[in-house]
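Students often ask why we bother encoding 3D structure as a string. The short answer is that it lets us treat folding as translation between two languages. Here is a chain of 261 residues written in the first language.
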Amino acid sequence: MRVRLFHVDAFTGQRFRGNPAAVMPLEDFPADAVMQEIAAENNLSETAFIVPQDDDYRLRWFTPSVEVPLCGHATLASAAVVMERLHPERQRVTFHTASGALIVKRAATAYVMDFPARPVAPLSAPPELAAALGVTPVEVHANDVNYVAVLHDERAVIELSPDIAAIARLDRSGLIVTAKGTGDRDIVSRYFTPARGVAEDPVTGSAHCALAPFWSQRLGKSELRAYQASRRGGEMTCRIRGQRVELEGTCVFYLEGIADL
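And here it is in the second language, the structure alphabet:
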């Protein structure tokens, strides 16, 4: 079987920055084990598989080691593939996923995604979390997926060098580290999820489903400019819409080809 393959850098306007995702349009989903093998072969933080469903698409995301229930950058990349390559006349697309229906719309040169908010609640920092970070966070919050560790300032986030193996042993699959931004950045963050096969994710839409409501309340703003300070770096605009979060970002196509499966 020959399948089209797209390699897209998401949440960036510059090639080789942002978060790279593979997008593979299919007629139907193959066996889960096959999709997992393909994702491992692609060796990007996520591979997205999209299958037509009437006027919409079904969408699933795989890291090199596991399937995940929500992924922002690979959804953004999938929307770019649909609206720039498969159906350039379209202005929006709906993806049916494990996290419900996700709508993505064109917005000038960017795309706007409508995602569910993932609010967090404060809790006492487990000692192993501070040990994994190598610094003591100002405060710690969590939901059932991620810890959110708040540091003193932007520089502390950027210069952080955590113990990745220790993060993998935490009782949440991911760790978001964040601080208030400077200049035109409202917030900065980094995201570590080695338990899912990605030591540090370059730019993470799903993490901002927690960060946006958290910082919106703190800063008194419903629209936030966010920067994820990984080695590649990337940015997005986040907007609070009730129990939903809008994530706006751009994409750059890097590679288009054919995969023999």
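Translate back mentally: The domain at 2-116+247-260 is CATH 3.10.310.10 (Diaminopimelate Epimerase; Chain A, domain 1). Keep this in mind for the problem set.
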